[in-house]
Structure formats: C-alpha cells, structure tokens
C-alpha cells in the first residue's frame, strides 16, 4: 500500500511522504534578472545548513532544490516553469 501526501513545512519547503521515503523540497522563485545557478546554489546551501535531511525517522530522506522561473509583464499572466532541480546529498 502506498501512502502519499504533501504538506508545507516552515518557509518555502514541502514534505512528501511516499511509502518508506520522505521527500523534502526547497523552492526558490526567480524572475528575469535572477540567476538560476545562484538561486540553486543558495537553495542547496540552505538545505545543507539547516540539515533538512536529518530526521528521527525510519524513512529514507531525499532532499531536492527546485528553482521556479516566473516571468510576467503588463500584457500577460505570469508564466511559471521549473528552471532547475537538483537532488542534494545529506
């Protein structure tokens, strides 16, 4: 049986639980002037600094940094796309 749910945790993180794994995703949003690489490194550093991967649980913890590119102007609705995703080792 697969048990799956998602719930937000403090800040811009989401926790997913699927069977014996916990997936923790750190999200960063960028605009046209921002650097994908810089935001990805910032998210990675935050995951490692805050030690998101360390949980007192019998589940395997997998952490991801996800960068969302959000572009908009006066004539169009915001367009959002995943600009980068990286699995972070613990």
Which properties best describe this structure?
5-stranded mixed sheet, alpha+beta, 1 helix
Report what the structure shows.
The protein is of the alpha+beta class and 90 residues long. It has one domain (4-88). It contains 1 helix and 5 strands; from the N terminus they run E-E-E-H-E-E. It has one helix spanning 36-50; strands at 4-9, 13-18, 21-30, 60-73, 76-88. It has a 5-stranded mixed sheet with strand order 1-2-3-4-5, with helices on one face. A hairpin with a 2-residue loop joins strand 4 (60-73) and strand 5 (76-88). The longest helix is centred in the middle third of the chain and has 15 residues, at 36-50. The two termini are 27 Å apart. The model has no long low-confidence stretch (mean pLDDT 77).
Major β-sheet strand ordering: 1-2-3-4-5
- Domains counted in the coordinates: how many? 1
Helix percentage range: 10-25%
Approximate strand percentage: over 45%
Number of H- or I-type helical stretches: 1
The count of β-strands is 5
The biggest sheet amounts to:
5 strands, mixed
* Shape by Cα distribution: elongated
Query: Can you tell me the residue ranges where pLDDT is under 50 for at least 5 consecutive residues?
Result: none
Order of helices and strands: EEEHEE
Mean pLDDT: 77
Q: What is this structure's SSE topology?
A:
Layout: E1 4-9, E2 13-18, E3 21-30, H1 36-50, E4 60-73, E5 76-88
Parallel strand pairs: 3-4
Antiparallel strand pairs: 1-2, 2-3, 4-5
